[in-house]
């Protein structure tokens, strides 16, 4: 990380937008271990670990409102953009608020940084893109060289925001880096509700409900624990010059069949509860299910790894065990 017109000895300022979310909470915890001034910004109050080297500021803001983004990033050396509409791809198809969050916040960020532009490199902006932006994946590991043909409104939003980031980088407004995320899972505490297919299946198993798949279980996803994703952001922050201006894929390099993952979840929950495993069954998909849900994805993240040295360190089975244990502890008596 580099300074932006700071007084000698002043801490670099790292602003995390979307700091109270699932990935945001993990990223916040990772940067809290560093000697920085860490500014956590989100609609809800963010939870910052009590121990760590960082000095912290916690702000609540609606980043879709005029002026809120500019205030949040004032004086920042590093901006980590993790804001995304909570409704996911379904909401993006019909909810106008989805674009305001997924694209509008980036528009306002670019405008704010353009207004404060000075001589020298702009602040580093790390953006959470999505591996699914390419649309239907090829029958080989994706590595970031594929053409982007997004299939859903959500992925079109993510791609539009990423293009704004790259354009602003070309104009020297910022040093933008897009980290396209795989299927992220895990648990970061009750202050940040988990999301995604793995947590959904674990909660169903804990409730004694069958685990349902829209296919025969052979469809695979590249699954990475949220703590490893957080470490990718810290790694990116240490290599701005090498990464700036491009998008980079994150992944474990595995295609984990979801049927096998669900059966593992079922067994882990059964062992914890002392009950028989819940069944894993196939069911008819909804009519609006995107075609990408029926294509396997494996990600080759070697370009990012070669620059940063990052790699996922949490084995899949260990990550599933940790997630099951955490979610089991949060169950209410009615479960």
From TrEMBL:
Keywords: Membrane, Transmembrane, Transmembrane helix. One of its GO terms (cellular component) is cytoplasm. InterPro entries: Epimerase_deHydtase (IPR001509), NAD(P)-bd_dom_sf (IPR036291), NAD(P)-dependent_oxidoreduct (IPR051783). Residues 14-251 form the NAD-dependent epimerase/dehydratase domain. GO terms for molecular function: aldehyde dehydrogenase (NAD+) activity. Pfam families: Epimerase. The chain crosses the membrane at residues 12-32. PANTHER family: NAD(P)-BINDING DOMAIN-CONTAINING PROTEIN-RELATED, PROTEIN YEEZ. This is UDP-glucose 4-epimerase. The lineage of its organism: Bacteria, Bacillati, Actinomycetota, Actinomycetes, Kitasatosporales.
């Amino acid at each position: 990380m580099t300074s932006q017109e700071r007084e000698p000895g002043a801490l670099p300022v790292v602003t995390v937008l979307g700091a109270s979310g699932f990935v945001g909470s993990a990223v916040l915890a990772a940067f809290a271990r560093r000697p920085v001034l860490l500014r956590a910004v989100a609609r809800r109050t963010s939870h910052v670990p009590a121990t760590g080297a960082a000095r912290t500021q916690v702000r609540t803001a609606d980043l879709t409102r005029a002026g809120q983004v500019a205030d949040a990033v004032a004086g920042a050396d590093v901006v980590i953009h993790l804001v995304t509409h909570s409704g996911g791809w379904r909401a993006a198809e019909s909810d106008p608020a989805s674009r305001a969050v997924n694209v509008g916040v980036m528009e306002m960020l670019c405008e704010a940084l353009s207004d404060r532009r000075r001589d020298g490199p702009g602040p580093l902006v790390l953006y959470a893109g999505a591996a699914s932006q390419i649309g239907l994946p090829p029958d080989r590991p994706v590595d970031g060289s594929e053409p982007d043909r997004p299939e859903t409104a959500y992925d079109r939003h993510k791609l539009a925001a990423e293009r704004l980031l790259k354009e602003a980088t070309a104009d020297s407004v910022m040093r933008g880096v897009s980290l396209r995320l795989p299927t992220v899972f895990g648990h970061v505490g009750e202050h940040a509700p988990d999301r995604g297919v793995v947590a959904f299946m674990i909660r169903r198993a804990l409730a004694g409900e069958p685990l349902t798949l829209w296919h025969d279980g052979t469809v695979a996803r590249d699954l990475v624990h949220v703590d490893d994703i957080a470490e990718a952001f810290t790694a990116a922050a240490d290599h701005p010059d090498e990464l700036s201006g491009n998008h980079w894929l994150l992944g474990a390099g595995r295609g984990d069949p979801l049927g096998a993952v669900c059966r593992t979840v079922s067994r882990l929950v059964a062992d914890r509860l002392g009950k028989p495993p819940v069944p894993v069954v196939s069911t008819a998909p909804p009519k609006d299910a995107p075609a990408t849900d029926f294509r396997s994805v494996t990600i080759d993240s070697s370009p990012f790894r070669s620059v940063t040295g990052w790699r996922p360190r949490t084995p899949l089975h260990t990550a599933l065990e940790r997630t099951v244990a955490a979610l089991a502890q949060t169950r209410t008596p009615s479960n």
